[in-house]
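Possible race condition, two jobs.
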Amino acid sequence: MELEEHLANAIEDPAKAAIEKVRERVILNDEDRMALAKYTVALWKRVPVSDPTLAPLVETKRSEIADVIARYKRDLPPDIWHRDLLNNSSPRVVETLLTMRWRFVYTNDAYFLTSDNPVFFFKHEGVGRLTSELTFPISSGVALSATHRRRDGNEYLPATSAVVSELNRRTASNATRFVHSSRNDLWVLPFVCKEQWRLNRLV
Protein backbone atom coordinates (compact mmCIF):
# COMPACT_ATOMS: atom_id res chain seq x y z
CA MET A 1 0.00 0.00 0.00
CA GLU A 2 1.35 3.42 -0.95
CA LEU A 3 0.65 5.02 2.43
CA GLU A 4 2.27 2.19 4.40
CA GLU A 5 5.37 2.28 2.20
CA HIS A 6 5.62 6.06 2.56
CA LEU A 7 5.29 5.92 6.35
CA ALA A 8 7.83 3.11 6.61
CA ASN A 9 10.45 4.59 4.26
CA ALA A 10 10.09 8.34 4.82
CA ILE A 11 8.94 8.54 8.44
CA GLU A 12 9.45 5.41 10.53
CA ASP A 13 12.84 4.19 9.32
CA PRO A 14 14.61 7.58 9.73
CA ALA A 15 13.11 7.90 13.22
CA LYS A 16 14.37 4.53 14.46
CA ALA A 17 17.90 5.75 15.16
CA ALA A 18 16.61 8.80 17.02
CA ILE A 19 14.23 6.69 19.12
CA GLU A 20 17.02 4.30 20.00
CA LYS A 21 19.18 7.23 21.10
CA VAL A 22 16.35 8.51 23.30
CA ARG A 23 16.00 5.10 24.90
CA GLU A 24 19.73 5.14 25.62
CA ARG A 25 19.46 8.79 26.83
CA VAL A 26 21.88 10.09 24.20
CA ILE A 27 21.76 13.76 23.17
CA LEU A 28 20.08 14.19 19.79
CA ASN A 29 21.63 16.09 16.88
CA ASP A 30 19.63 18.23 14.43
CA GLU A 31 19.05 15.33 12.04
CA ASP A 32 17.72 13.17 14.87
CA ARG A 33 15.39 15.95 16.02
CA MET A 34 14.02 16.42 12.51
CA ALA A 35 13.37 12.68 12.10
CA LEU A 36 11.68 12.45 15.48
CA ALA A 37 9.63 15.59 14.84
CA LYS A 38 8.31 14.19 11.54
CA TYR A 39 7.53 10.88 13.23
CA THR A 40 5.68 12.62 16.07
CA VAL A 41 3.58 14.70 13.66
CA ALA A 42 2.82 11.62 11.56
CA LEU A 43 1.50 9.80 14.63
CA TRP A 44 -0.62 12.83 15.46
CA LYS A 45 -1.94 13.26 11.91
CA ARG A 46 -2.69 9.62 11.20
CA VAL A 47 -5.47 9.55 13.83
CA PRO A 48 -8.73 10.60 12.15
CA VAL A 49 -10.71 13.36 13.88
CA SER A 50 -14.49 13.38 13.78
CA ASP A 51 -16.19 16.55 12.57
CA PRO A 52 -18.30 18.23 15.32
CA THR A 53 -20.16 20.30 12.69
CA LEU A 54 -22.23 17.20 11.89
CA ALA A 55 -24.18 17.60 15.14
CA PRO A 56 -26.80 20.10 13.81
CA LEU A 57 -27.52 17.83 10.83
CA VAL A 58 -28.22 14.92 13.12
CA GLU A 59 -31.12 16.82 14.66
CA THR A 60 -32.94 17.28 11.33
CA LYS A 61 -31.83 14.15 9.48
CA ARG A 62 -31.17 11.75 12.34
CA SER A 63 -32.17 8.52 10.60
CA GLU A 64 -30.14 9.32 7.47
CA ILE A 65 -27.03 10.68 9.19
CA ALA A 66 -26.74 8.29 12.15
CA ASP A 67 -25.50 5.42 10.01
CA VAL A 68 -22.97 7.66 8.24
CA ILE A 69 -21.57 8.98 11.51
CA ALA A 70 -21.27 5.49 12.97
CA ARG A 71 -19.52 4.24 9.83
CA TYR A 72 -17.10 7.18 9.75
CA LYS A 73 -16.24 6.71 13.40
CA ARG A 74 -15.46 3.04 12.75
CA ASP A 75 -13.60 3.52 9.52
CA LEU A 76 -12.92 7.03 8.24
CA PRO A 77 -12.48 7.03 4.41
CA PRO A 78 -8.73 6.92 3.81
CA ASP A 79 -8.66 9.69 1.21
CA ILE A 80 -9.73 12.23 3.83
CA TRP A 81 -6.54 11.92 5.85
CA HIS A 82 -4.12 9.77 3.77
CA ARG A 83 -3.65 12.70 1.39
CA ASP A 84 -2.30 14.78 4.27
CA LEU A 85 0.32 12.18 5.14
CA LEU A 86 1.41 11.36 1.59
CA ASN A 87 1.77 14.97 0.44
CA ASN A 88 3.88 16.03 3.42
CA SER A 89 1.42 18.85 3.98
CA SER A 90 2.47 19.52 7.56
CA PRO A 91 5.88 21.23 7.27
CA ARG A 92 4.76 24.16 9.43
CA VAL A 93 3.72 21.81 12.21
CA VAL A 94 7.11 20.08 12.05
CA GLU A 95 8.88 23.46 12.08
CA THR A 96 6.84 24.58 15.08
CA LEU A 97 7.66 21.38 16.96
CA LEU A 98 11.36 21.91 16.22
CA THR A 99 11.21 25.43 17.69
CA MET A 100 9.89 24.04 20.97
CA ARG A 101 12.34 23.19 23.75
CA TRP A 102 12.54 19.43 24.10
CA ARG A 103 13.15 17.53 27.28
CA PHE A 104 13.02 13.78 27.78
CA VAL A 105 11.76 12.50 31.11
CA TYR A 106 12.55 8.95 32.12
CA THR A 107 11.53 6.51 34.81
CA ASN A 108 13.24 3.39 36.09
CA ASP A 109 10.67 2.28 38.65
CA ALA A 110 7.32 3.22 37.11
CA TYR A 111 6.33 3.19 33.42
CA PHE A 112 4.53 5.22 30.80
CA LEU A 113 1.40 3.98 29.06
CA THR A 114 0.94 4.47 25.35
CA SER A 115 -2.09 4.36 23.05
CA ASP A 116 -3.37 4.47 19.49
CA ASN A 117 -3.19 8.28 19.77
CA PRO A 118 -0.08 8.90 21.89
CA VAL A 119 0.79 12.50 20.95
CA PHE A 120 -0.94 14.85 23.41
CA PHE A 121 -1.39 18.61 23.36
CA PHE A 122 -4.16 20.86 24.64
CA LYS A 123 -6.48 21.13 21.65
CA HIS A 124 -7.61 24.69 22.41
CA GLU A 125 -3.97 25.87 22.25
CA GLY A 126 -2.38 23.75 19.56
CA VAL A 127 1.42 23.75 19.59
CA GLY A 128 2.20 27.31 18.52
CA ARG A 129 1.42 29.34 21.63
CA LEU A 130 3.82 30.26 24.40
CA THR A 131 1.83 28.14 26.84
CA SER A 132 1.56 25.12 24.52
CA GLU A 133 2.76 21.73 25.70
CA LEU A 134 3.25 18.52 23.75
CA THR A 135 3.99 15.14 25.31
CA PHE A 136 4.66 11.78 23.68
CA PRO A 137 5.58 8.49 25.43
CA ILE A 138 8.36 7.15 23.22
CA SER A 139 8.76 3.97 25.25
CA SER A 140 7.60 2.64 28.60
CA GLY A 141 10.63 4.30 30.17
CA VAL A 142 11.08 7.59 28.27
CA ALA A 143 8.71 10.35 27.16
CA LEU A 144 9.14 13.58 25.20
CA SER A 145 7.97 16.80 26.86
CA ALA A 146 8.07 19.87 24.57
CA THR A 147 7.24 23.47 25.41
CA HIS A 148 8.00 26.99 24.18
CA ARG A 149 8.99 28.14 27.64
CA ARG A 150 12.69 28.50 28.36
CA ARG A 151 14.30 25.48 29.92
CA ASP A 152 17.84 25.20 31.18
CA GLY A 153 19.76 22.17 32.29
CA ASN A 154 19.82 18.55 31.20
CA GLU A 155 17.93 17.21 28.22
CA TYR A 156 17.19 14.00 30.15
CA LEU A 157 15.62 14.23 33.57
CA PRO A 158 14.14 11.65 35.95
CA ALA A 159 10.36 11.90 36.03
CA THR A 160 8.66 12.36 39.37
CA SER A 161 5.71 10.13 40.21
CA ALA A 162 3.44 13.13 39.58
CA VAL A 163 4.84 13.58 36.06
CA VAL A 164 4.45 9.87 35.26
CA SER A 165 0.84 9.98 36.47
CA GLU A 166 0.09 13.12 34.46
CA LEU A 167 1.51 11.71 31.24
CA ASN A 168 -0.43 8.50 31.77
CA ARG A 169 -3.64 10.47 32.32
CA ARG A 170 -2.98 12.35 29.07
CA THR A 171 -2.37 9.12 27.19
CA ALA A 172 -5.51 7.45 28.51
CA SER A 173 -7.71 10.49 27.90
CA ASN A 174 -6.36 10.95 24.37
CA ALA A 175 -6.84 7.34 23.24
CA THR A 176 -9.45 6.68 20.58
CA ARG A 177 -9.79 2.93 21.20
CA PHE A 178 -6.69 1.30 22.69
CA VAL A 179 -4.30 1.93 25.58
CA HIS A 180 -1.19 -0.23 25.87
CA SER A 181 0.74 -1.10 29.02
CA SER A 182 4.10 -2.84 29.33
CA ARG A 183 2.87 -4.58 32.48
CA ASN A 184 -0.37 -6.24 33.54
CA ASP A 185 -0.66 -4.45 36.88
CA LEU A 186 -4.00 -4.31 38.70
CA TRP A 187 -4.24 -0.51 38.61
CA VAL A 188 -4.06 -0.22 34.81
CA LEU A 189 -7.59 -1.28 33.81
CA PRO A 190 -9.45 0.89 36.38
CA PHE A 191 -7.15 3.78 35.49
CA VAL A 192 -7.79 3.47 31.76
CA CYS A 193 -11.56 3.01 32.21
CA LYS A 194 -11.96 6.18 34.25
CA GLU A 195 -14.43 8.53 32.56
CA GLN A 196 -13.43 11.94 33.94
CA TRP A 197 -9.85 13.15 33.64
CA ARG A 198 -8.36 16.22 35.25
CA LEU A 199 -5.39 17.16 33.12
CA ASN A 200 -2.71 19.47 34.48
CA ARG A 201 0.19 21.37 33.01
CA LEU A 202 3.71 20.12 33.55
CA VAL A 203 5.34 23.58 33.64
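Job #2 (started ~2 s after job #1):
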Amino acid sequence: MTRNETVTNKKPESPFLRVLKLVFVKGGILPWFLFGAVLIFAGWSDSFLTNYNIMLIGRQATYLVLVALGQMVALLTAGLDLSVGSIFAMTSVITAMVMVSYLKVEPESIWVTILLGSLAGLVVGITIGAINGVGIAFFHVPPFIMTLAMSTIVFGLALKLTAGVPIYGMPQEFGEVFGYGLIGGIAVPTFFAAGFCILMYIILARTKMGKYIYALGGNQKAALLSGINTRLYLFLAYVICGGITAVAAVLMTARLDSGEANLGQNFP
Protein backbone atom coordinates (compact mmCIF):
# COMPACT_ATOMS: atom_id res chain seq x y z
CA MET A 1 0.00 0.00 0.00
CA THR A 2 1.41 3.36 -0.98
CA ARG A 3 1.66 6.34 1.31
CA ASN A 4 -1.09 8.18 -0.63
CA GLU A 5 -3.46 5.21 -0.24
CA THR A 6 -2.78 5.18 3.53
CA VAL A 7 -3.66 8.86 3.82
CA THR A 8 -6.80 8.35 1.68
CA ASN A 9 -8.02 5.40 3.79
CA LYS A 10 -7.59 7.25 7.08
CA LYS A 11 -10.96 7.88 8.74
CA PRO A 12 -11.86 11.56 9.12
CA GLU A 13 -12.08 12.84 12.67
CA SER A 14 -15.63 13.26 13.90
CA PRO A 15 -16.92 16.77 14.74
CA PHE A 16 -17.62 15.60 18.30
CA LEU A 17 -13.96 14.66 18.87
CA ARG A 18 -12.81 17.94 17.39
CA VAL A 19 -15.05 19.84 19.82
CA LEU A 20 -13.76 17.79 22.77
CA LYS A 21 -10.15 18.49 21.80
CA LEU A 22 -10.89 22.17 21.41
CA VAL A 23 -12.61 22.36 24.79
CA PHE A 24 -10.18 20.32 26.88
CA VAL A 25 -6.87 21.01 25.13
CA LYS A 26 -7.36 24.71 24.53
CA GLY A 27 -9.48 25.54 27.56
CA GLY A 28 -7.98 23.08 30.02
CA ILE A 29 -9.64 20.76 32.51
CA LEU A 30 -9.67 23.12 35.53
CA PRO A 31 -12.59 25.28 34.35
CA TRP A 32 -14.68 22.12 34.13
CA PHE A 33 -13.80 21.17 37.69
CA LEU A 34 -14.89 24.66 38.74
CA PHE A 35 -18.12 24.34 36.78
CA GLY A 36 -18.81 20.95 38.40
CA ALA A 37 -18.12 22.35 41.87
CA VAL A 38 -20.53 25.22 41.28
CA LEU A 39 -23.26 22.79 40.19
CA ILE A 40 -22.73 20.56 43.23
CA PHE A 41 -22.77 23.38 45.79
CA ALA A 42 -25.67 25.13 44.08
CA GLY A 43 -27.72 21.93 44.38
CA TRP A 44 -26.56 21.36 47.94
CA SER A 45 -27.44 24.81 49.34
CA ASP A 46 -30.11 27.30 48.30
CA SER A 47 -27.96 30.19 49.54
CA PHE A 48 -24.87 29.33 47.48
CA LEU A 49 -25.79 31.31 44.35
CA THR A 50 -27.19 34.30 46.21
CA ASN A 51 -25.69 37.70 45.48
CA TYR A 52 -24.42 38.03 49.05
CA ASN A 53 -22.62 34.70 49.02
CA ILE A 54 -21.06 35.35 45.61
CA MET A 55 -19.84 38.71 46.90
CA LEU A 56 -18.28 37.03 49.94
CA ILE A 57 -16.57 34.37 47.82
CA GLY A 58 -15.23 37.04 45.47
CA ARG A 59 -13.80 39.07 48.34
CA GLN A 60 -12.32 36.03 50.07
CA ALA A 61 -10.68 34.80 46.86
CA THR A 62 -9.14 38.19 46.07
CA TYR A 63 -6.04 37.78 48.21
CA LEU A 64 -5.15 34.31 46.95
CA VAL A 65 -5.83 35.34 43.34
CA LEU A 66 -3.43 38.28 43.61
CA VAL A 67 -0.67 36.23 45.25
CA ALA A 68 -1.17 33.51 42.61
CA LEU A 69 -0.79 36.09 39.84
CA GLY A 70 2.55 37.19 41.25
CA GLN A 71 3.69 33.61 41.80
CA MET A 72 2.65 32.78 38.23
CA VAL A 73 5.19 35.26 36.84
CA ALA A 74 7.99 33.63 38.85
CA LEU A 75 6.86 30.16 37.77
CA LEU A 76 6.85 31.19 34.10
CA THR A 77 10.58 31.87 34.39
CA ALA A 78 11.05 28.28 35.67
CA GLY A 79 11.53 29.63 39.20
CA LEU A 80 9.35 30.12 42.26
CA ASP A 81 8.97 32.53 45.16
CA LEU A 82 8.70 31.01 48.63
CA SER A 83 8.87 34.44 50.26
CA VAL A 84 5.36 35.59 49.31
CA GLY A 85 4.08 34.78 52.80
CA SER A 86 6.78 36.88 54.44
CA ILE A 87 6.19 39.70 51.94
CA PHE A 88 2.57 39.55 53.03
CA ALA A 89 3.54 39.81 56.71
CA MET A 90 6.12 42.59 56.37
CA THR A 91 3.89 44.65 54.07
CA SER A 92 1.06 44.40 56.58
CA VAL A 93 3.30 45.42 59.47
CA ILE A 94 4.88 48.40 57.70
CA THR A 95 1.54 49.59 56.31
CA ALA A 96 0.01 49.57 59.79
CA MET A 97 3.04 51.16 61.48
CA VAL A 98 3.22 54.05 59.00
CA MET A 99 -0.52 54.73 59.22
CA VAL A 100 -0.58 54.66 63.02
CA SER A 101 2.53 56.86 63.30
CA TYR A 102 1.34 59.47 60.79
CA LEU A 103 -2.19 59.52 62.19
CA LYS A 104 -0.80 60.54 65.58
CA VAL A 105 0.93 63.54 63.98
CA GLU A 106 -1.87 64.48 61.56
CA PRO A 107 -5.14 63.08 62.97
CA GLU A 108 -7.23 65.03 60.46
CA SER A 109 -5.35 63.81 57.37
CA ILE A 110 -7.18 60.51 57.02
CA TRP A 111 -6.72 59.88 53.31
CA VAL A 112 -3.12 61.12 53.29
CA THR A 113 -2.47 58.62 56.09
CA ILE A 114 -4.05 55.80 54.07
CA LEU A 115 -2.10 56.78 50.96
CA LEU A 116 1.27 56.99 52.72
CA GLY A 117 0.75 53.74 54.60
CA SER A 118 -0.33 51.88 51.46
CA LEU A 119 2.59 53.24 49.45
CA ALA A 120 5.01 52.27 52.22
CA GLY A 121 3.67 48.74 52.17
CA LEU A 122 3.95 48.53 48.38
CA VAL A 123 7.54 49.81 48.50
CA VAL A 124 8.41 47.11 51.04
CA GLY A 125 6.95 44.35 48.85
CA ILE A 126 8.68 45.63 45.72
CA THR A 127 11.99 45.97 47.61
CA ILE A 128 11.87 42.39 48.85
CA GLY A 129 11.03 41.22 45.34
CA ALA A 130 13.93 43.27 43.98
CA ILE A 131 16.35 41.69 46.46
CA ASN A 132 15.14 38.26 45.38
CA GLY A 133 15.57 39.29 41.76
CA VAL A 134 19.11 40.55 42.26
CA GLY A 135 20.18 37.37 44.03
CA ILE A 136 18.62 35.11 41.40
CA ALA A 137 19.35 37.08 38.22
CA PHE A 138 22.77 38.59 38.97
CA PHE A 139 24.32 36.24 41.54
CA HIS A 140 22.74 33.05 40.14
CA VAL A 141 21.40 31.87 43.49
CA PRO A 142 18.77 29.14 42.89
CA PRO A 143 15.25 30.57 43.36
CA PHE A 144 14.39 27.95 45.97
CA ILE A 145 17.38 28.88 48.16
CA MET A 146 17.13 32.64 47.63
CA THR A 147 13.44 33.00 48.35
CA LEU A 148 13.47 30.51 51.24
CA ALA A 149 16.29 32.44 52.90
CA MET A 150 14.54 35.76 52.26
CA SER A 151 11.33 34.33 53.71
CA THR A 152 13.07 33.41 56.95
CA ILE A 153 14.86 36.75 57.26
CA VAL A 154 11.82 38.90 56.50
CA PHE A 155 9.54 36.91 58.79
CA GLY A 156 12.07 37.33 61.61
CA LEU A 157 12.22 41.09 61.01
CA ALA A 158 8.42 41.33 61.05
CA LEU A 159 8.30 39.51 64.39
CA LYS A 160 11.07 41.75 65.74
CA LEU A 161 9.20 44.91 64.77
CA THR A 162 5.92 43.83 66.35
CA ALA A 163 7.09 41.47 69.11
CA GLY A 164 4.34 39.22 67.79
CA VAL A 165 1.62 41.70 68.78
CA PRO A 166 -0.87 42.97 66.15
CA ILE A 167 -0.73 46.69 65.36
CA TYR A 168 -4.03 48.53 65.76
CA GLY A 169 -5.11 52.15 65.38
CA MET A 170 -5.37 52.62 61.61
CA PRO A 171 -8.02 54.95 60.17
CA GLN A 172 -11.50 53.45 60.26
CA GLU A 173 -12.07 54.54 56.65
CA PHE A 174 -9.25 52.25 55.52
CA GLY A 175 -11.15 49.13 56.51
CA GLU A 176 -14.55 50.48 55.54
CA VAL A 177 -13.49 51.19 51.96
CA PHE A 178 -10.71 48.75 51.08
CA GLY A 179 -11.72 45.93 53.39
CA TYR A 180 -15.51 45.88 53.38
CA GLY A 181 -16.51 48.49 50.81
CA LEU A 182 -18.98 47.64 48.04
CA ILE A 183 -19.46 49.11 44.57
CA GLY A 184 -22.62 47.96 42.84
CA GLY A 185 -22.88 45.01 45.22
CA ILE A 186 -19.31 43.86 44.42
CA ALA A 187 -16.57 44.02 47.07
CA VAL A 188 -13.88 46.63 46.40
CA PRO A 189 -11.01 44.09 46.71
CA THR A 190 -12.64 42.05 43.92
CA PHE A 191 -12.13 44.98 41.53
CA PHE A 192 -8.42 44.95 42.37
CA ALA A 193 -8.21 41.22 41.60
CA ALA A 194 -10.08 41.62 38.31
CA GLY A 195 -7.98 44.62 37.33
CA PHE A 196 -4.70 42.83 37.96
CA CYS A 197 -5.92 39.75 36.09
CA ILE A 198 -6.56 41.93 33.04
CA LEU A 199 -3.27 43.77 33.48
CA MET A 200 -1.24 40.56 33.75
CA TYR A 201 -3.00 39.12 30.70
CA ILE A 202 -2.03 42.20 28.69
CA ILE A 203 1.57 42.11 29.92
CA LEU A 204 2.08 38.39 29.31
CA ALA A 205 0.14 38.05 26.06
CA ARG A 206 0.53 41.43 24.36
CA THR A 207 3.96 42.82 25.29
CA LYS A 208 7.59 41.97 24.62
CA MET A 209 8.15 41.54 28.34
CA GLY A 210 5.60 38.73 28.43
CA LYS A 211 7.20 36.94 25.49
CA TYR A 212 10.63 37.29 27.07
CA ILE A 213 9.37 35.90 30.40
CA TYR A 214 7.97 32.86 28.57
CA ALA A 215 11.29 32.50 26.74
CA LEU A 216 13.17 32.51 30.05
CA GLY A 217 11.04 29.66 31.31
CA GLY A 218 11.47 27.68 28.11
CA ASN A 219 15.25 27.88 27.84
CA GLN A 220 17.19 30.63 29.55
CA LYS A 221 20.41 29.98 27.62
CA ALA A 222 18.58 30.05 24.29
CA ALA A 223 16.86 33.28 25.35
CA LEU A 224 20.25 34.83 26.12
CA LEU A 225 21.65 33.76 22.75
CA SER A 226 18.57 35.29 21.11
CA GLY A 227 19.56 38.70 22.42
CA ILE A 228 17.17 38.89 25.38
CA ASN A 229 18.48 40.65 28.47
CA THR A 230 17.76 37.64 30.66
CA ARG A 231 19.05 39.25 33.86
CA LEU A 232 16.75 42.24 33.51
CA TYR A 233 13.57 40.26 32.84
CA LEU A 234 14.34 37.66 35.49
CA PHE A 235 14.83 40.51 37.94
CA LEU A 236 11.58 42.17 36.85
CA ALA A 237 9.65 38.91 37.27
CA TYR A 238 10.42 38.84 40.99
CA VAL A 239 9.78 42.57 41.36
CA ILE A 240 6.33 42.04 39.85
CA CYS A 241 5.71 39.09 42.16
CA GLY A 242 6.65 41.14 45.22
CA GLY A 243 4.59 44.13 44.10
CA ILE A 244 1.38 42.21 43.43
CA THR A 245 1.75 40.29 46.70
CA ALA A 246 2.12 43.62 48.51
CA VAL A 247 -1.17 44.84 47.00
CA ALA A 248 -2.90 41.74 48.37
CA ALA A 249 -1.29 42.33 51.77
CA VAL A 250 -2.49 45.95 51.95
CA LEU A 251 -6.04 44.84 51.12
CA MET A 252 -5.92 42.07 53.71
CA THR A 253 -4.61 44.53 56.32
CA ALA A 254 -7.60 46.75 55.58
CA ARG A 255 -9.96 43.84 56.06
CA LEU A 256 -8.43 42.77 59.39
CA ASP A 257 -7.93 46.38 60.53
CA SER A 258 -4.54 45.40 61.95
CA GLY A 259 -0.96 44.75 60.92
CA GLU A 260 0.13 41.24 61.81
CA ALA A 261 3.49 39.51 61.49
CA ASN A 262 1.93 36.07 61.06
CA LEU A 263 -0.28 37.14 58.17
CA GLY A 264 -0.03 35.20 54.92
CA GLN A 265 2.16 32.35 56.16
CA ASN A 266 -0.03 29.78 54.37
CA PHE A 267 0.14 31.50 50.98
CA PRO A 268 3.37 29.88 49.69
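The chain has twelve helices and two strands.
Logs attached separately.
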